[in-house]
Amino acid sequence: MKKDLNRALNAFAAMDDLPESMLLGAEQALLDAEGGLPTPRKPPSVFVRFLNSGWGAAVISGIVALGVLILVLRAGREPATYEPPKKPVGSTIEMSTEGVNFTISTEMENYPEDTNRFTVIMTGKAKGETISMWGGWHLERLTAEGAETVEISYTEEALISANPGKDEYATMKKSIFGTNTGGGFQPGRYRLHATKHDGEKYVSVAWCTFTVGDPGDLTWGEDTRPSETDPAVEYPPASDRPYTVTTADTVEYGATGLGITVKAVEPGVTLFPHRNYRIVKLAGPANGEGAVWMQTAEAVEVRPSEENGGYAVFRDSVTLQSPEEWLPGLYRLYALNHDGEYIDYCDFVIQPDERNLPFSVSMERVLYTEADTELAILFEAYQPGRPISRGDCWSLWRVEDGKRIPMGSQTAEYAIEGAEVAPDEYAVEHFRPTVSLVTGGKHKTLPAGQYELIFDPGAVPYGYAVTLFFEVVSLPEQAPESGVGSGRG
Amino acid sequence: MSNTRPLTDAEIIALYLARDESAIDHTARQYGAYCLSVAMNILNSHPDAEECVNDTYLRAWRSIPPQRPTVLRLFLGKITRNLAIDRYREKRSRNRELEVALEELSEFLPAREEDDSALPSLLADFLASLPAEERNLFILRYWQGHSVARLSQAFGLKPNNLSARLYRTREKLRVYLTERGYQV
Predict the structure, then answer these.
(1) Minimal Cα–Cα distance from A204 to chain B, Å?
(2) How do A394-400 and A403-410 pair as beta strands?
């Protein structure tokens, strides 16, 4: 008979359907068998028999006493200076960068909101080259004494584009957790190694360092976290802003223009905005070169007007060139002054083209209280017989005074990819993400307020992001059952 | 790991239901080695097996609730096994020991044009008709993917003897399926 290993593998997988009692019975039989067969012990060696004898014990005692005497004499002669160990403490890996086709970096430089997790970004070294095998991760904390191994509890695969086009760099993201109990990494300097197993031991193939700040340095809810896409951004305090900038919250996919309103923060003040804008992408499918976009023009004089309540208001527009490259997602527009410093920013969402949406997303339970951390989300396919394939890559934003404040993000691998659906059935998926505020490595419920939850399908080739809105109601008020809309971004 | 007392399955599952992340800690402590051995049987690669086990914890975290497994060990073992099989397919890994088991398994697969969907229930009926020891050996070899070497050592059998026993069971299965209209 022709051997068909693929079918055999399918049959092997299908054996999961055997009754549990049978499977447990077999496992128990193996446990009993292995427990009942103790490993035969070898007779002690000649050396061990010597140690166990009276003479052996006397000789060993003498050697130990001599060693102690030598140590005492040396300590008396030499100054007590510290000499760092030549090999890092606790480090068991060796370096080998041969054949490595990627570099790694992390997003956790002074990033203490979630000290239990950080994201690793692997980037291909050459365009078009696929990121290939790695064996695992090894984390060290760098101290004055050397490097101490830090336990990594588990990892999650996040955004993956490991097979790039010929003009793109492969990228891969991974979330690495320190402890499963939420204890978090201690503040300090760390070095992370990507490793592979050479058959005998793990060797380091790429590494990067990062700093975990003191959790007390930053407070949740304040917009002090550097932008994920541009860590160099330094945002001026509100009192220094001569004007605010706003734009439409949502822009249809394929739109060619973006209307912008610049308004003075005080009445009676004449403005000279420079019409310098920069747009960066915060969430959504990768946009390639179009992810960061700038417009520069001369300043214009804007006088206060009665029509605008005594404020100087200037309406401007940014033309989105090559709109087909502006994929759906969440964007941030910065207004810059003459020196290129950021004055103000606002966020906007480019809507997906619904014709391409494979499924709708809505909240089954859209309102919850401070005591709650779990949302209930429903995915429903648009067409019968079409499976839902989604990525659980989402970011949470608090909305205050029309501004979005990042509250963290979470990524996970695909949950129901390729789920089979009968030809006349609509695929439905219930999803219950835990939405919590992680500070000092501990999960806490969200404070009352307005929130947006943005799904970023990432590697899923549908090209859209989805925004859901919800509100947290302060306790002990009675939380209504519903009342805040759901939507698609 | 501050708590040293091993928890019962019910206690661990209660932690999952309460969304207490220490559930994963306890799961790893009590079933981590078991899951690793399940994955190793299929992947024969320690790094890959470790990744599989990590993914098992994540999958369990996301499955409970709504699921409430009665036997956590089996629940986790199945997840690990499925993840390992997926990884095995995805990476086109080579595990000679598993391939041997698959080749043996392919001997009783019906011809390609026939429907495989009824096989699991037929297989369950067939195994139920076997003596316990014979059934256990079959399951350990073809569900757990244990090597002949390990099983023969555990059960105090010579490898050739064990292989012959497994062969006879497969032969019985072939007859069983043929009698039920399958072309094997």
Answers:
(1) 13
(2) antiparallel
